[in-house]
Amino acid sequence: MKELAHCLRRDGVVAAMLYGKYGRIGVELLGSVFRDLGLGQDDASIKLAKEAISLLPTYHPLRNYLTKARDLLSDSALVDTFLHGRQRSYTVEECVDLVTSAGLVFQGWFHKAPYYPHDFFVPNSEFYAAVNTLPEVKAWSVMERLETLNATHLFMACRRDRPKEQYTIDFSTVAALDYVPLMRTRCGVSGTDMFWPGWRMAPSPAQLAFLQQVDGRRTIREIAGCVARTGEPSGGSLADLEEFGRKLFQSLWRLDFVAVALPASG
Question: Quick check: 26 and 63 in contact, CB under 8 A?
Answer without folding.
Answer: yes
